[in-house]
Structures are given as C-alpha cells and as structure tokens.
C-alpha cells in the first residue's frame, strides 16, 4: 500500500527537522552537524540536493519556510543561541545562456537569546513577515520585518516570559480576519510539579499585547512538539500535542472585541483524543493540508497516522516503521479516544430521491 | 547487590556473554521458526546458549580480549585478585599457553576492574583493592610475561597467596597503597590509562612513566570511568546519583553533571554514535540516553547541550546491566535480575512533515530520509483535489456537480438545489424570496387560523374489503409545496405516481416503490410491485412473501394478521418494508416508528409527515428532525432548512465533521443569497482559494473566481497598479483605462491604431520611459509585426509594457521574455539587479 522512497540525506548527525515550502516542491533539513540543506523535487518526483551550508555553530534544531510571496526565505534556530533568516539569491551569470548558481545568504542573525533557541516559526502571511522564536530560558520573542523587501532588518516586537524552558511553538494558521493571532508554546520541562506545559497566547489588536490564555490545564508531562491544524473554515481550532502520548485538543475561536474592556483570559479547551499507541515518548506531530490526518513519530521508531472520522472522533489509520514498511496488524492496538461523536449516516441511507423525483416529471423539468 | 549479573557483547558480532555465578556464551540469530530451545531477545531476534564456563566462582570483573576473531579469550578478575584467562572449550589460545593462565598479584585482595588495551591488544590492566605497600594497578602483557618471568626470576617477590605459583611480572604497576575502583584506556593513545582511585580522584597515568601522574582531578566520581570511543577528550564517570562528563584537556571540573533520581550502576558510551552516553540506575527498567552535543561559539566552548531520552527496553524487571553492540547502530542488550535478556535497538528520533500535497517525509536513522509520494490514504484532501480537477462545483447546470462526486449525500444536495431552484423559477413555490427555500420556510402553518384540512378515507373504500377503519390525510397548499420539495409532487395525478413508481422499479428500488404506493393508499399497487420484483434480487423470493402478507391487510385490532405483523416487522431488515407494516399496524395515528426510521431517506419521511401528521405534530417533528440533522452535519437537512441562517449552521457543522471546505464553499456560493455572504462564508471562500493556490491549481482557482464574480458582480477587484508620470507625477493609467473604455480625453483619437501611440505623458507631454531593449518609448509598438493573422493576440500582449518590481527597469513584454530566456540580470547596462531570480516561481520553471 505504502511505497516509501529513500533519500540519502548526507547529514553527518541526527536530522532534527524537515520542512516543506508552501507548494511542497522544496524541502529543507537541519541537523546536529550544524548544516542546513535544501532539496528540490524534479518533475519525476525525485529529490535532489541543491544547497548545503553550515548555518550555525551548534545543533540546528528547526528550519522553516516563509510564504513564497516574501521570496525564497528560510529561518533556522540553533543551540548556538541564535536564530537566523536566510534568503536564496542567484549569483553572477557566468555567461550568456547560463544561469548563475543559487546560494543562500544570511540576512539576519537574531542574537537576543542567552540560551539555546529551540523553535522558530513564521507567522501567518496576512500579518506580513513576523517571526516567533522560543528559547530554553523560557522567553518567546516575536520579531517583525517592517519592510518585507529588506530581510536584514528585524525589530523585536514582543518578549513574552513563559518561565519554563520552551521546546516548541506553533502559530494558529487561520487566515480569517476574525481570529486574532494565536500562539501555542510547549515546554519540555520534565518536572510535573512545575505545572502546565502548554501555553496559549492571544494577541489583542486593541491592547497591542499578547495575553496568556487559561486553556489547557491538565498537561503536565513534558511537551516535545505541538502543531495547530490548518483551519480551513472550521468553527474551532485543533491543536496536536506530542508528549508522552499524542493529544488532540479543540480550542474555541476567540474574538477580539475592541469595545470590551475585559480581556478574555480563559479558553474552553477540550482534549478530544489521546493515543498512547507509540507506547513511549512522542517526538513530532504534523498535519496534512486539510487538517484531517495527523501524523506522529515516537520512540517506538514508527510513524503513525490518525484520521478524523467525525467531529471529535479520531481513529488510528496507519502505522509505518521507520524503514517505510507497514506494520500489518494496525488498528488492533487499542487507543483512547475520549469522545466519539454520533456517526454520520452511511451513504446508503441517504437518499437517491431527488434525482428520481426530478426525472419523474420530465415535462416540468427541461434537461439541457 | 548480592548476586551480580552482567552482560557484554563480544568482538564477534553475533555473540555475547553473560556472567554472574557462571559465564555463559550465547549466539544471536534472526528468528527462524524451525529452531526451538531459543531464548527470545526481541520480536526479531533470539539467542541460543553455546557454552558455559563454571571454572570461576568469584568473578568480580571481566573483559573480552579485543582481538578475538573466531574464539574468545576472557580475562576474568577474581575476588582473590587474580586475573584468569579463560576460554570456552578448546581454542587457538591453548597452543599459546594462554588458556588457564593466571596473572597473580603479590598480595591477595579483590580485583575491581580488568581492562584490555584496544591498541596494544596483549596488554591487560587490573585494578585492585588497597594493600599496604603494594601497587593497586597492574598492567600485564600476556605475550611477554612468561619470558620475562624466567629472565627476572631472581627478582621474584614472595607470593603470599600461593607460594608455589610462579609469578608473572607486570610490565607496569603503580598506585601504592591505593584503591583502584575503575579504569579505562585512552582510545587513541595506548600508553595512557585513566583510573578512578581511592574514592577521591581520577588519575591519568602514562605507563611509560607510571609514577608520574599526567593529570588528575579531585572527585568522588571514581566509578565506571569510561572513555568516549570516538573522542578521547570525553570521559564519563559516576558516583551515587550523579554522572559526570569530563573534558580530558581541561580536567579541573566536569563539563557536565547529570543528576539521576536513583544511584547509577552502569554507564557506557555508544560506540556507533558520537557523544551518546547510556546509563542505568539501580532497580530501574529504564536506560537513560544522553546525546551530548558540544558547541563552540566563537573560540569559546560553551556548556554542551544534552538531549535526554529514556528508553524502556521492554523488560519490566530490574535491569542489572546493559551492553552496546560494537558495530550495529544504537543496539544494546540488557539483562534483568530475573535473567531475562532483551535485545533492543534505539530508534533515532524521527522528525517528519507533511507536504501540502499528500506527500509525507520522515527521517530514518541519521543518514536517510524516507518519503511517500501521494500517500494512498483515502482522505478528503485527495478527494478535494480530484474533484477540483474535474471541475466540481463549477458546472453551469447545478445538478451536474452532483455527477462529479462519488458521494451520495453531496450528489443529493446538488440535485435538490437544482430541484428547489427550478420550483422557485417555475413559480410553484411562491411567497419566498429565497432561491432555495427549505420545507420549514415553505410550511407557514399557523395552527390558529390557517389550519390544514383533513380528510378521512375509509380503508374499505380504497379496496380493502376486510377493513372498517379510516385513514386521515392532511392537505394544505403549503403542504403541497413541501411535498414538491420532497419530490413527492404526484399527489393529485395518479399517472405521475405510476410513472414515478415504474422508474423506481427500474432502478431496483422495489421496496421503496411499494412503500410509496402504500403511503399513497394504493395497497393493491404495492402488492403488484412487490410480486413483480425479480427473483434474482437478494430478497426476491422474500418480496413475494411480503406481498402475500400485505394482501392480508386488515385494520381489525384483534386480527391475527395485525398481531403477527406487529411482531414480525421487527425481523425485516429492509427499512421500507418495515415502515410499510409500521404504517399499516399503527394505532391512534401514532407513526413514530415510521418517522424515526433512519433507514428511510429524509425526504420520504418529511413527505410522509406532511401527509399524515396534524399541524402541531408536523411542526414539532420537523423542528426535531432539522435540529438533529444540523447537529449531525447531515446535508440532507438542507431540505428542511433551505438556504437561511440555519442552513449556514448546517454547512458549518458539515465542514467541522468532514473538513470538506470545497463542497462547503461551493454550496455556499452557489446556493446562498449574496446578501447573506457573512464573514463565515468569506472565510470559506478564501480558505478554498488558498488551498487551490497551494496545489498550484491556478486555473481551477481562476475558474472559481469567475464563477464567484457571476454571483457577486458588484465586487470588482480594485486596480492593482497605478502608473504615474516621472515628471509631473500625474497618473497615466487613468488615461489608459479611459482609452480602452472609449471614454476620457483621448476618446476622440479613437481607433485601435491610435491606442498604441500614447508615448508621452498625457499631463505634461514629457516622454514615457523607454524599453530597455529597443529604446523606444513606452506606448510604441514592438516593431516586429508578424504577418500571420493567428498571432495577432500574442502581438497585443507583447506590446504591453512590463518592468521589474525591484529595479523598476522594463520594456516590452516580448523583448523582456526574449532577454530573460538567456539572462537573469536586468537588461539595463550597469544595473546589477537579478530581476529574473527575484521571482521564485520562475526559478521553479527553469528547474
């Protein structure tokens, strides 16, 4: 069923992150070997390495693409306490009819953090060029490039103290003007006594500040990754969390009311599913383009996929070993799905009626 | 720890030993079904016991000769301080006189550590407990010592333990009156050994000059001293709850302290991976792994980063020891108190991502990535893409959109939208502004003054001789409209009914046809339909039986027929057969079991309700049903809600349940009135457009936009580019706009030829910029007219003026495309702008 292809990554150490661009035709990887590599897919679907450079002087934790309307732009963050923004440029044309070689230049180095920068993500493109970073010292920083044509100038807009070491962050990708900016941040602090490990921040346009929401209160295990699902018009936001298991949380919409003096600080989050199928630590979670399938990876060396069958009803649908082979007895393993919505009626029970009805009166219904 | 249990891989890749009270040798192999008597190590490997060595009873420590290729030679440290060389059975070492040889210290005390040198492989070091005036670290050369023995026999010291035994002389010894707890040879320098001593320091000793200590540090962490096999700079040791990592070049302080919850009993560097340290705590089932990354910022080496991982190798019991495999990546063995051995491979952390297309990539190990193109999972995302490519939602005839999808519910919606639209157009449904009114909107029943008429018909008048009862039918013009919406618009005309039923029969829906016949009170017709059903059908014969049963219809409450049918109908699987008998056996006009039969389509149930329910109950029923369908996100509910606010609620619920942004956006655009385009619908539209853009389905997106603009013609996209004169700053584009529209100050020039002649600013008459290639002013033609009539359209476009957004140089389109076919720099001399490469998409195209 699944046919996995292989790429020789040519990294010398563990690859920490792999990111697709907006169209899914370019890929960037980063590794403990301090290198970042960019891969392009040719028309046959094969990936070739097009750029590789030493980006940092420590492990590179994360790499992420900006929306293509800002150019070919990457951001990376590293243990060397910095985050960097890179842009691809084309070199001098060697001669007529030939293209210059493409290479990546560092446009800026964000050095505000005093500890390892653990995650970096571009904000929703409707907000211009915004960049959020989080660090092991527990500070979330939000930068902005006021001039999108000048990627070397970034101003630090906000510093949010989060008190616990941060491991991951995710922007809410909603493009709707009705939804204020929202950030989720996770902490991998191992001590359950230090409280909640997932923080939700909402930006209030009227107050011009980020407010911490009282949302997810019962996740005290270390969180290694989290990811908002693409929203696509849904009436709620969905957040996937990688901790000792895979958790899927629904968050209601927040509306920024400029007239109201009371800033909302509570969100009624609901854990709709949790899967301990990995039976061990979960490292990564990511969504497909419609937010209907969640993929996760864990210490069991497997990639697992979970699909939404109905509102709040999630089911494991596939298990792949790291080498790409499929685990056969998938679905046998139990999963804890908390609330299961009413099953939608199967197609056979919905009607065939209208079409027939229309045909039964051929004179009344002119068919073109 | 009374009983000691250890495990260690040997240099032979598929063999390992365990030792406690006896030394056992095992061979590991992949699972084979035919071999019994295996010890299961993991899901894919098992081991069998090859040999046992029971010669030694007080084994304190053990190391395997590193050059063991075929046969194993063990150095066994005993509690009396001797190092005994042992083998399993006869080996090549027998001839060398090594087997059974003992390396004996002068004074008996416990041997704490034994360690082969991996470079000078004949050297073995022994670390002993303290003995007054004797050295605690002895280094022997197993090849040389016997010869030295003879030549230096005169210097032989008195052996307190076994005076008769010849004493070999160590090639080096040090540590007078000290205790050696643990030790490790440097992996790249064969002459230097690190020894943890006296519970207070770790010393590096060069054995060429053993009395001089090359380096040392004060620490209690003298246990488990081990050297990173890949890098001599890093040394690890532990004491109680702490693991320390040292830099041997800067040995004052540990570079890292790793605190553990319980006392540590073993640590080991992974030989196959840089900087990976494994550790084991007392009475634990977990192996802790530390990936220690060293970072240099500038010239300063900062505190290393540590990625910690806990691995549970599956054995729930106390793990006593573990051992890394020498060559297989990340593989180790553990042994538990119970003796259970587990073979475990640590998976490297997998990172993964999902492309906007349905491609998935993840990392496998350090060096490879795996990816799947077009993940073969049935998901709405792949369906949306397929449907978009087939023009779904864009078909002019609305019902044709239903033919594109393989989903009955969606097909029904599109058909219903067509039907309801048609009914409104034909004037059947009057009095609503809505394009697609729902049943609830059509039924404006007011129980007080606009009651439905009800007719009572005697069953016996309808040709059922054995009936006395009556059946009540409600009629009202609003009810008629609702029936139209349910496509039951054949009430008054029996020919239409017959035609409809024949159509149903043709499609094989015999039971549905029968049910509709019964609801139309034509039981005889229903019997005929059922008996006509071909026997090839799954329940062909069964339908004849049902027809027979139906023929016996009587509404006598006490009749056998009624009693039998009331119970037997539960056994029917076909929902339509069930409702036939539910209807005929209903008492006091209680049709709950018909109305709540979910197997019957929504419109049949609604139509049924419109015929047989009195006003107030009909109202309640429709309310309940629509609430339920909205809650479920079942699009059949549009029949009830129509395209009003409830309809939007229903669509939202459908979207929440399925993620089908495409159908949601398309139905919203095509069915809902433009005035009602709330923020929600706009979000749906923009989400769908964004999705198409991500997939590079720009054509499909454009078609969608065109369709959208036909629904809201007022929404003209704003002008995107304004061109103003360099000199006077007045806009030029406004004039150009006027030109093409035949209005504005240049109308009088008129004619297509003149259109091309605007080469100066209409405000100040200064010339417009020049094309960088032909140096003609903007507004002049390109000059390479083609004679071919067909290429006229292209010529029009090639006359356009274009420019780079970055350097603002430009020219005629045809010239620019020609130039950028071969160049990526700006055509203007001395301008270094790489106009072409600024555009990422052009890069992709070139690629």
TrEMBL record, chain A:
It is found in: Lysosome; Nucleus envelope. Its main location: other. PROSITE patterns: WD_REPEATS_2 (PS50082), WD_REPEATS_REGION (PS50294). The keyword Cell cycle applies. One of its GO terms (cellular component) is lysosome. GO terms for biological process: cell division; cellular response to amino acid starvation; positive regulation of TORC1 signaling; protein transport. One of its GO terms (molecular function) is structural molecule activity. Keywords: Cell cycle, Cell division, Lysosome, Mitosis, Nucleus, Protein transport, Repeat, Transport, WD repeat. WD repeats lie at residues 8-40, 275-309. It holds the Pfam family WD40. Transmembrane segments: none annotated. Belongs to the WD repeat SEC13 family. This is Putative cytosolic iron-sulfur protein assembly protein Ciao1-like Protein. The lineage of its organism: Eukaryota, Metazoa, Ecdysozoa, Arthropoda, Hexapoda. The gene is AUGUSTUS-3.0.2_09902.
TrEMBL record, chain B:
It comes from the Eukaryota. GO terms for cellular component: cytoplasm. GO terms for biological process: cellular response to amino acid starvation; positive regulation of TORC1 signaling. Keywords: Repeat, WD repeat. Residues 384-612 form the MIOS-like alpha-solenoid domain. Residues 725-835 form the GATOR2 complex protein MIO zinc-ribbon like domain. Belongs to the WD repeat mio family. PANTHER family: GATOR COMPLEX PROTEIN MIOS, WD40 DOMAIN-CONTAINING PROTEIN MIO FAMILY MEMBER. This is Missing oocyte-like protein. The gene is AUGUSTUS-3.0.2_12250.
């Amino acid at each position: 069923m699944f046919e996995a292809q292989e790429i020789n990554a040519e990294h010398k150490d563990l690859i920490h992150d792999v990111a697709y661009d907006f169209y899914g035709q370019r890929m960037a990887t980063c590794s403990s070997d301090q290198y970042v590599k960019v891969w392009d897919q040719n028309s046959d679907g094969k990936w070739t390495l097009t750029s590789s450079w030493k980006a940092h002087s420590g492990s590179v934790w994360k790499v992420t693409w900006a929306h293509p309307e800002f150019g070919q732009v990457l951001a990376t963050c590293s243990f060397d306490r910095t985050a960097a923004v890179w842009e691809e440029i084309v070199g001098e044309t060697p001669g007529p009819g030939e293209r210059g070689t493409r290479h990546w230049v560092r446009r800026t180095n964000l050095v505000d953090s005093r500890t390892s920068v653990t995650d970096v993500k571009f904000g929703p493109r409707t907000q211009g060029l915004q960049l959020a970073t989080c660090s092991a010292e527990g500070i979330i920083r939000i930068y902005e490039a006021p001039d999108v044509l000048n990627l070397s100038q970034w101003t630090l807009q906000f510093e949010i103290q989060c008190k616990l070491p941060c491991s991951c962050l995710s922007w809410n990708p909603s493009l709707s003007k009705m939804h204020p900016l929202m950030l989720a941040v996770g902490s991998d602090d191992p001590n359950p006594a230090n409280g909640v490990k997932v923080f939700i921040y909402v930006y209030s346009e009227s107050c011009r500040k980020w407010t911490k929401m009282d949302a997810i209160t019962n996740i005290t295990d270390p969180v290694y990754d989290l990811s908002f699902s693409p929203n696509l018009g849904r009436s709620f936001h969905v957040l996937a969390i990688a901790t000792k298991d895979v958790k899927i949380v629904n968050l209601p919409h927040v509306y920024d009311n400029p007239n109201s003096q009371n800033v909302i600080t509570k969100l009624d989050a609901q854990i709709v599913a949790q899967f301990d199928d990995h039976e061990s630590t979960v490292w990564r979670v990511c969504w497909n383009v419609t937010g209907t399938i969640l993929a996760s990876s864990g210490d069991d060396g497997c990639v697992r996929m979970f699909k939404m069958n109905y509102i709040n009803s999630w089911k494991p649908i596939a298990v792949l070993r790291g080498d790409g082979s499929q685990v056969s007895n998938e679905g046998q393993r139990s999963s804890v799905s908390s609330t299961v919505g009413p099953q939608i009626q199967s197609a056979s029970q919905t009607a065939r009626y209208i079409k027939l009805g229309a045909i039964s009166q051929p004179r009344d219904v002119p068919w073109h | 720890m009374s009983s000691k249990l250890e495990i260690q891989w040997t240099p032979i890749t598929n063999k390992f030993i365990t030792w406690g009270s006896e030394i056992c040798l095992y061979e590991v192999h992949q699972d084979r079904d035919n071999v019994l008597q295996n010890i299961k190590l993991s899901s894919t490997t098992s081991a069998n016991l090859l040999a046992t060595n029971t010669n030694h009873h007080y084994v304190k420590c053990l190391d395997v000769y590193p050059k063991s290729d075929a046969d194993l030679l063990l150095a066994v440290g005993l509690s009396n301080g001797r190092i005994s060389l042992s083998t399993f059975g006869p080996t090549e070492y027998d001839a060398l006189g090594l087997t059974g040889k003992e390396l004996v210290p002068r004074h008996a005390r416990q041997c704490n550590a034994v360690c082969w040198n991996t470079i000078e492989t004949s050297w073995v070091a022994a670390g002993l407990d303290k003995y007054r005036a004797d050295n605690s670290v002895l280094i022997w050369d197993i090849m040389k010592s016997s010869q030295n023995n003879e030549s230096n026999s005169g210097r032989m010291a008195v052996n307190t333990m076994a005076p008769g035994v010849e004493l070999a002389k160590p090639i080096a010894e040090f540590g007078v009156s000290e205790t050696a707890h643990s030790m490790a040879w440097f992996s790249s320098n064969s002459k230097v050994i690190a020894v943890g001593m006296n519970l207070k320091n770790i010393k590096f000793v060069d054995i060429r000059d053993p009395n001089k200590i090359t380096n040392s540090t004060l620490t209690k962490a003298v246990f488990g001293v081990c050297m990173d096999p890949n890098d001599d700079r890093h040394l690890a040791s532990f004491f109680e709850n702490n693991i320390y990592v040292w830099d041997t070049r800067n040995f004052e302080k540990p570079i890292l302290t790793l605190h553990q919850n319980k006392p540590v009993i073993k640590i080991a560097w992974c030989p196959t991976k840089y900087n990976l340290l494994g550790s084991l705590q007392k009475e634990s089932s977990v192996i802790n792994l530390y990936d220690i990354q060293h970072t240099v910022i500038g010239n300063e080496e900062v505190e290393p980063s540590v990625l910690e991982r806990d691995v549970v190798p599956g054995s729930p019991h106390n793990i006593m020891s573990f051992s890394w495999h020498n060559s297989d990546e990340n593989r180790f063995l553990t042994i538990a108190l119970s003796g259970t051995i587990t073979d475990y491979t640590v998976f490297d952390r997998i990172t993964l991502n999902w492309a906007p297309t349905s491609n998935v990539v993840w990392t496998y190990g350090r060096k490879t990535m795996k990816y799947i193109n077009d993940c073969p999972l049935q998901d709405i995302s792949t369906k949306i893409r397929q449907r978009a490519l087939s023009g779904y939602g864009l078909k002019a005839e609305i019902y044709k959109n239903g033919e594109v999808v393989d989903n009955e519910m969606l097909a029904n919606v599109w058909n219903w939208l067509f039907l309801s639209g048609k009914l409104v157009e034909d004037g059947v449904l009057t009095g609503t502004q809505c394009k697609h009114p729902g049943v609830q909107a059509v039924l404006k029943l007011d129980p007080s003054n606009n009651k439905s008429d009800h007719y009572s018909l005697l069953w016996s008048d309808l040709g059922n001789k054995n009936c006395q009862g009556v059946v009540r039918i409600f009629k009202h013009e609003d009810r008629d409209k609702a029936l139209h919406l349910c496509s039951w618009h054949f009430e008054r005309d029996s020919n239409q009914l017959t035609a409809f039923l024949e159509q149903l029969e043709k499609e094989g829906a015999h039971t549905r046809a029968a049910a509709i016949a019964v609801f139309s009170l034509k039981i005889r017709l229903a019997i005929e339909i059922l008996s006509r059903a071909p026997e090839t059908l799954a329940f062909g014969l069964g339908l004849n039986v049902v027809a027979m049963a139906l023929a016996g219809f009587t509404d006598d409450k006490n009749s056998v027929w009624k009693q039998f049918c009331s119970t037997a109908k539960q056994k029917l699987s076909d929902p339509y057969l069930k409702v036939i008998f539910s209807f005929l056996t209903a008492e006091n006009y209680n049709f709950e079991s018909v109305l709540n039969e979910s197997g019957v389509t929504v419109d049949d149930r609604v139509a049924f309700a419109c015929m047989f329910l009195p006003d107030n109950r009909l109202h309640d029923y429709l309310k309940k049903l629509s609430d339920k369908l909205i809650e479920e996100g079942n699009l059949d509910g549009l029949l009830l809600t129509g395209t009003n606010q409830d309809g939007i609620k229903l669509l939202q619920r459908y979207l929440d349940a399925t993620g089908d942004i495409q159908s949601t956006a398309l139905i919203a655009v095509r069915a809902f009135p433009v005035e009602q385009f709330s923020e929600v619908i706009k979000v749906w539209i923009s989400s769908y457009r964004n999705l198409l853009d991500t997939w590079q389905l720009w054509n499909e997106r454009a078609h969608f936009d065109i369709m959208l603009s036909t629904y809201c013609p007022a929404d003209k996209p704003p002008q995107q580019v304004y061109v103003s004169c360099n000199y006077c700053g007045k806009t030029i584009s406004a004039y150009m706009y006027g030109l093409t529209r035949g209005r504005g100050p240049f109308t009088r020039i008129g004619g297509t030829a003149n259109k091309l002649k605007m080469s100066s600013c209409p405000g100040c008459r200064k010339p417009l910029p020049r094309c960088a290639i032909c140096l003609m002013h903007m507004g002049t033609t390109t000059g390479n007219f083609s004679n071919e009539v067909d290429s006229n359209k292209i010529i029009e476009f090639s006359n356009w003026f274009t420019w780079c957004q970055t350097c603002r140089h430009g020219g005629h389109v045809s010239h620019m495309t020609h130039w950028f076919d071969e160049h990526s720099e700006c055509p203007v001399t001395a301008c270094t702008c790489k106009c072409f490469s600024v555009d990422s998409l052009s890069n992709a195209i070139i690629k």
